[in-house]
Amino acid sequence: MICEELGDIIWYAVTIARRAGLDFRKNILLGNLRRVGDHKTSYLPSSKKTNNAANKSRNAIAAKGIGAVETFDGFQKNASRSAILKRRRDVLVPYLARIWRNSGELLDHLDVRRPDFSEEEKQQITRSLGDVMWYVAGFATLFEESLSNIASLNAEKIQSMFVPGTPTRLHDVGDRVLEQFPRKFCVDFVPTDGETAVMLVNGLQIGDPLKDNAESASQGLIDGYRFHDCVHLAFAAVLGWSPVLRSLMKRKRKSNKKIDDTQDGARATIVEEMIVKLTHSYAVGVDSKHLLKGRGHVTMDLLKQIQMLTEGLEVNKNKFWELEKAILEGYNIFDQLRRHGRGRIVVDLRNRSVSLSKLTENEAEIFPEPT
Q: Can you tell me the distance from the alpha carbon of 260 to that of 264, in angstroms, rounded to the nearest whole number?
């Protein structure tokens, strides 16, 4: 958790510096080391030894120049020398307060979204971000973490979120054919009455008939939770993962007991249902009328919560952008289904896509009306 939070701070600092046209290594990191003074050690007992060490550190940094910050670890090493940290955990609170103060002052006086800044504003950004990075380095040192490693892990997370690339390998590749998801199939959502819907694959029902089972339905509000299985279909299409759907389609990997127990068993299905309920609550909170229709992103907090829930499951290997795509496409279809009451979903694992087409009463084998 510490590494992730520090990594996010680094990311924001780099982003602000780039927006201001500053060289992060030269202006922010090296500039900070050159300005290191006794105020940085004021949270520790002052002594002649401390001040002498700080003076030696400043001289060494001046001699090395830009070489003092060739890497984040280089900056961390020089910053720790100037602070004489000695693993004092009691400085964590003042360090945190300083990060808040410097960040707050920066955001309070500047609109960091602007495309241009005056020289005076650039100097303020340089000082504030430099101080923030000094305290971040102090945190990392006290917890015996590498600042370079923290930055690297954060870069991987950001790439996973914002840089769509090659999809994660399907999780059942190499398994027996009848234990794999079909690589392309259609599922019809049809009503049996005004409150109940079923799923049909080739005219055969999978799963139980579903109702909304919500108070909102009695109040005349559009809920449509009986169509929530479309989100499981989106997970299967985009992520190659849905223990719920595997069970419904009789595609559990029973030939491998370990996988059957851990990846396709009850615990995994419960986790998936939790994720669907979590994302549904999120979607309703965003827009109860349209869910996530037309949205381009979900919050990082939501993705992190899902990542925590899937710890130990194969879907945890999927990238954030894949998970985000599955959620957005699933809830776009969800919104359409609850409005139209029926539809045919095409699940395509090869192209990692899921789509919805309209369905008339004559295009699906619909159960007869109750007598």
A: 5
- Residue that the structure tokens 């919560």 belong to: 305
23 pLDDT band, cuts 50/70/90, is very high
User: Can you tell me the distance from the alpha carbon of 321 to that of 274, in angstroms, rounded to the nearest whole number?
Assistant: 20
With both helix axes pointing from N to C terminus, report the angle between 72-83 and 147-162 in degrees, rounded to the nearest 10. Answer: 140
Enter the tokens of residue 355: 């789509």
Q: What is the pLDDT of residue 345?
A: 95
Mean pLDDT of 71-99: 74
Q: Which two tokens stand for residue 344?
A: 């045919």
Tokens 């827009």 locate to 287
pLDDT digits (tens, 9 = 90+) for 230-242: 999 999 999 999 9
Q: Is the CB of residue 233 less than 8 Å from the CB of residue 345?
A: yes
306 and 300 Cβ atoms separated by less than 8 Å: no
Name the amino acid, one letter, at 57.
S
Which residues, including other chains, have CB under 8 Å from residue 364's CB and lie 6 or more apart?
Answer: 188, 190, 200, 203, 342, 344
Amino acid code (one letter) for 20: A
30 near 66, Cβ under 8 Å? yes
pLDDT digits (tens, 9 = 90+) for 143-154: 889 999 999 988
Show Cβ contacts of residue 216 under 8 Å, excluding neighbours closer than 6 positions.
223
C-alpha to C-alpha distance for 251 and 259, rounded to whole angstroms: 12
Task: Say what the pLDDT of residue 102 is.
Answer: 85
In the block, tokens 């999780």 appear at 171
- Average pLDDT, rounded, for the chain: 83
Instruction: Identify the helix (H) or strand (E) that includes residue 207.
Output: strand 204-210
* Assigned token pair, 47: 């002594």
Instruction: Single out the residue of 316, 284, 306, 202 nearest to residue 249, CA to CA.
Output: 202
Q: Which residue has the tokens 């952008």?
A: 321
pTM of the full predicted structure? 0.71
* Residue 31 clears pLDDT 60, i.e. is over it: yes
- Which strand (E) or helix (H) includes residue 288? none
Cα-based distances in Å from 214 to 56, 207, 224, 226, 232: 69, 19, 9, 10, 20
